[in-house]
Amino acid sequence: MAFKFTDKYLKSFVGDSDLSAVSDELESAVRTLEERNGAGNDFLGWVDLPVDYDKDEFSRIKAAAKKIRESCDVFVVIGIGGSYLGARAAIEFVKGNSHNSFKDGSPEIYFVGNDISSSHMRDVIKLCEGKDVCVNVISKSGTTTEPAIAFRVFRDMLVEKYGEKAKDRIFATTDKARGALRSQCDAFGYETFVIPDDVGGRYSVLTAVGLLPIAVAGIDIDKMMGGAAKAREELAGGDIFTNPCYKYAAIRNILYRQGKKIEILVANDPALTMTCEWWKQLFGESEGKDGRGLYPSSVIYSTDLHSMGQYIQQGSRTMFETFINVNIPDGFEIPYDSGNSDGLNFLAGKEMNYVNQKAFEGTVIAHTDGGVPNCAVELTSRSADDFGYLVYFFEKAVAVSGYMLGINPFDQPGVEAYKKNMFALLNKPGYEEEKKKLDKRIADIG
Asked: Which of 118, 100, 116 has its CA nearest to residue 108?
């Protein structure tokens, strides 16, 4: 495993004096996190999770994953937000985004309940036809609209296909003692795993929420936890500006105060597309409140250099980039063409990763020259260890960064606004007065 954070491309934007100017704030934020006396301190279970987790449940997760791998062709994971992004990110990070086409003994894994699209639902149902299926429903309450609808559909499908034995193919990750889903589990006998009370959804990938699907994919979750444990050890204490996690948090705040309002997470490997999506939730929900916070966006290079690249190079100067540079020499060479019709024989015999690295270097220089600051994380492998380390790095960084912003990095009060409107418009009992108001507003809009 190799992880490296560098700010060497930032020298013309963030200097030593800038870092010194925020050192007191940074030290205060770090101390607040370490002493656990800040806003949201009841959601700090993730801090020690890599070493302080339920070992018995961890063993049950591995046993359940083995059972699922042996008994099904398709594994359907039902969840939204933190209940699916981390698991999907981990699976694609390690195995690539074509993993469902591999014949490696793992079931195909599909994610539903993260939208309200009937076409997506129909597509996954069709993929299940004629195959043995297991389901993992993930919900703290069991009443979140999107996954609750999906669970109704797939629960009924399994009951129709397997009868009473359907319960042996349903695995639920939910609250340990209460909630609608917990009640269903108790009534029907589904095997259950726990969403810890002190770990928020966007921080939950290293709990049963993420670990069961990850283990079903055939990924070594012991190594993933080991990578996170290593990050916990290496990213604790020390000088605040030699600790890459703290330095990244400081840099983000400095650039924000310089007028940069958007952080673009860049990956140069499409296997990290869902890692970027996970990161966007982590940073967006953690910092986007009280009229503050960087807007988290993402791109995949070099693909998006042929679309978003124009804007990033020459558009409004309100952004900076954080690269995840995947640098893995793997011997994949570019062939020689006797006709040289494309004029690329100067690349013949070179590794494709070599070209990717030169594209990375060229892009950083071009964007820096164009007024877009850049910092970077370099990975030299895409292992389970690496994912665990990367997850912990970003989780701790956003916690410190949020405290520097003066907000609670662990709540998400704004998420409820759309739900209230949706429930009212759908005639949910108890929302009658709100529905009248919304219907009038819609009518006035015309």
From this structure: 100
DSSP string, 390-440: HHHHHHHHHHHHHHHHTS-TT--GGGHHHHHHHHHHTT-TT-HHHHHHHHH
CB 389 within 8 A of CB 94: no
Burial environment of residue 103 by CB neighbours within 10 A (0 to 12, 13 to 18, 19 or more):
exposed
Encoded tokens for 401: 């960064």
Q: Which of 35, 70, 306, 416 is catalytic?
A: 306
Asked if 135 and 169 count as a contact pair (C-beta separation under 8 A), the reply is: yes
- Is 306 one of the annotated active-site residues of the chain? yes
Residues 285, 287, 321, 395: which is the catalytic one?
285
Other beta carbons within 10 angstroms of residue 313's beta carbon come to 15
Short-list 325, 313, 321, CA closest to 359? 325
Mean pLDDT in each 10-residue stretch from start to end of the chain (446 residues)? 89 95 97 97 98 97 98 97 97 97 95 97 98 97 95 97 97 96 96 97 97 98 98 91 95 98 98 98 97 97 97 98 97 97 97 97 97 97 98 98 97 88 91 90 88
Q: Out of 261, 350, 358, 419, pick the active-site residue.
A: 419
